[in-house]
């Protein structure tokens, strides 16, 4: 049908353009965030691209939801402003008739959001947490990339490795260590260094170097040359016995777990999928605009509705996590109410003149 094909083509173009703009904004922020993590020593520099991909997968469901919502607002809003909507209305096509082409265009996005939230979301968080834990459990000197200064976890030591050593031994060449031991400060330089494991401890073994020691209280300087020098470089990777974060747990395990934290995470995942559908109905009703007024109030109200809806989604997740609400009550209450609100607004827009006959009587009496 001409009506369906017209709306679907227009909506697909608006969704694509909106998605590109929002993706560009989010990608710029994620690049800055990822590079900041690497610069602060929170992640390994060689893992930056993979971490950027994981962060992108985590934010993609919200990006798709927002893009689809704004696409509906822009498409129908343009029809209102250019009086195209008046032509459809005069042809006997009501506002509720737009639901079918909007759903027909949006269902791939809804399915994709569902797959991302139920399967990709926990996997990305699990991979991200594993990367950070493995990096944090590494010795301080192992976290130092060639050509970069790396501070220890307690901030008392600074390592610098000019060039990574080749071979199986973990270490490097031209190693620099600044150690602040309170009243004494030392600077050690060596031609090479390597990591040795002794039990649960790691030691950095320096070869052929010298060290300058300074007593901060007396100002006394000491120069020492050495052929072999050991520096404690942390402990081995301890087994991680902590329970995984609910965000990193598979959806099936969340259902079987049954704890408040798991139910709270399940509330968010299912709620976001339901929220995408509800936002489509809200977008159809909130896109109404007066063709005689060049304003973007509909877009402003739509953005406000999006923010309020997703804040309520986070709030209900916190309630379920704290054990103050039941997941079924929350899903039915919040998203059922949003669904009815969207349909109610569509019906009100379509029957506005019938609902308010009192306004017509007041205008006639004023004459």
TrEMBL record:
Bilayer-crossing regions: 12-36, 48-77, 98-121, 266-287, 299-320, 326-348
Name this protein carries in UniProt: Lipopolysaccharide export system permease protein LptF
Compartments it resides in: Cell inner membrane
UniProt cross-references to Pfam families, sorted A to Z: LptF_LptG (PF03739)
Top-level taxon: Bacteria
Membrane topology: Multi-pass membrane protein
Biological process terms in GO annotation: lipopolysaccharide transport; transmembrane transport
GO cellular component, one term: ATP-binding cassette (ABC) transporter complex
Keywords: Cell inner membrane, Cell membrane, Membrane, Transmembrane, Transmembrane helix, Transport
Keyword Calcium part of the UniProt annotation: no
Extent of the signal sequence: none
Keyword Ribonucleoprotein: no
């Amino acid at each position: 049908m001409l009506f369906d094909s017209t709306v679907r083509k227009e909506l697909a173009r608006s969704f694509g353009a909106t998605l590109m703009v929002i993706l560009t904004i989010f990608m710029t922020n994620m690049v800055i965030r990822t590079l900041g993590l690497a610069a602060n020593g929170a992640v390994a520099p060689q893992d930056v691209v993979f971490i950027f991909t994981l962060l992108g997968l985590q934010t993609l469901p919200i990006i798709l939801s927002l893009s689809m919502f704004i696409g509906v607002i822009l498409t129908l809003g343009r029809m209102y402003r250019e009086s195209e909507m008046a032509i459809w209305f005069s042809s006997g096509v009501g506002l509720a008739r737009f639901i079918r082409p909007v759903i027909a265009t949006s269902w791939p996005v809804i399915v994709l959001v569902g797959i991302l939230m139920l399967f990709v979301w926990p996997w990305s968080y699990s991979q991200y947490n594993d990367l950070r834990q493995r990096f944090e459990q590494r010795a301080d000197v192992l976290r130092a990339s060639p050509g970069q200064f790396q501070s220890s976890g307690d901030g008392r030591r600074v390592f610098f490795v000019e060039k990574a050593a080749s071979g199986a031994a973990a270490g490097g060449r031209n190693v620099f260590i600044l150690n602040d031991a309170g009243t004494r400060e030392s600077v050690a330089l060596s031609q090479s260094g390597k990591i040795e494991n002794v039990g649960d401890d790691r030691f950095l073994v320096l070869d052929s170097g010298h060290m300058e020691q300074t007593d901060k209280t007396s100002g006394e300087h000491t120069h020492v040359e050495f052929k072999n020098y050991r520096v404690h470089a942390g402990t081995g990777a301890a087994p991680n016995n902590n329970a995984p974060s609910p965000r990193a747990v598979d959806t099936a395990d969340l259902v079987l777990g049954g704890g408040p934290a798991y139910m709270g995470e399940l509330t968010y995942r299912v709620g976001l999928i339901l929220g995408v559908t509800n936002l489509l109905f809200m977008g159809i009703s909130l896109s109404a605009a007066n063709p005689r007024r060049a304003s973007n109030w509909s877009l402003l109200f739509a953005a406000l509705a999006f923010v309020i809806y997703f804040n309520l989604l986070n709030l209900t997740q916190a309630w379920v996590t704290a054990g103050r609400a039941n997941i079924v009550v929350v899903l039915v209450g919040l998203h059922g109410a949003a669904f009815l609100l969207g349909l109610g607004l569509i019906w009100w827009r379509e029957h506005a003149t019938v609902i308010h006959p009192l306004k017509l009587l007041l205008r006639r009496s004023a004459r």
